[in-house]
Amino acid sequence: MFSPVIQSLIAEKAGSFIIPASRIAFVEDENPLYHAFLVLTKMKYSKIPVLDKEQKVVGLISLSMITDTMLTPDNIVIEPLSDLKVKDVMQTKFETINFARTNLETQLHLLVDNPFIPVVNDNNIFQGLLTRREWIKAFNYVTHSIEEKYNITKKTLQKENPIT
Amino acid sequence: MFSPVIQSLIAEKAGSFIIPASRIAFVEDENPLYHAFLVLTKMKYSKIPVLDKEQKVVGLISLSMITDTMLTPDNIVIEPLSDLKVKDVMQTKFETINFARTNLETQLHLLVDNPFIPVVNDNNIFQGLLTRREWIKAFNYVTHSIEEKYNITKKTLQKENPIT
Fold this sequence. Notes:
2 copies of one chain form a homodimer. With 164 residues, the first copy, chain A, is α+β, with helices and mostly antiparallel strands. Chain A is built from 7 helices and 9 strands. In chain A, helix 1 packs across helix 7 (132-149). The two termini of chain A are 31 Å apart. The mean pLDDT of chain A is 90. At the A-B interface, helix 1, helix 2, helix 3, helix 6 and helix 7 of A face helix 1, helix 2, helix 3, helix 6 and helix 7 of B.
């Protein structure tokens, strides 16, 4: 069970928890690959969301997905950057979070294997990102505030084999 | 203050906490840049440590540091990959952790702004990585075990202005 006490401490911080879409770099699925190459090189993010024209999240793209197309058996070539589009190389299998439906426990579980998770609304429109960094900050807050606000005492051990 | 209760819960998990050097991809400072380009493309890590011949951590390198050298005002070129070495583009300013000296509170603070931190011994020899992912797993453990093992009750509010 997810600790109700920690849940209530984290709830105090909610709102500061998601990075809003307006602050996130993204590319569009129809962009040529060199555009994503430039954005990822200059923004220094390791992976960013891919949106379609309606602002729906349709994929994720990283520099390594792009540079992988540049490898030939005996050389590194730049032609794929203009020959291919973002949609040709992006990752299309990924998790999303809908804040109205995804509880904290599930969010934390998803972040074990994903550095960030796109947040969408009921129409799959991009709302922002949930990131490990924001959860590390939340954990930081919990570790510093829990014993200010709560008394915590160790439970006495239950006997495993009661006398018969 | 870092909660002693959470500290003791995390201490139960210590050991599983650092990813050992033997499991980490790295490059050497004298490697040509195309070697790091290949390693980062194929391993799909966003950033990896750079070691010298004595296994000391001397830098960090990401794909975007490499692809940035490939940008000219009007083109993308591959020559820098063979003309430059890892040490020419790596990041040389970075934090390290020495487990004998760095407490949990400091580790958690460092992870707010760094997805991972190299762990070194007293001779600066690479020991492994501390990652946000491992801390997310630790937080997961804390949220699920704290109320099994401890009784937690809200502190009563102290009156700020005692009756005079």
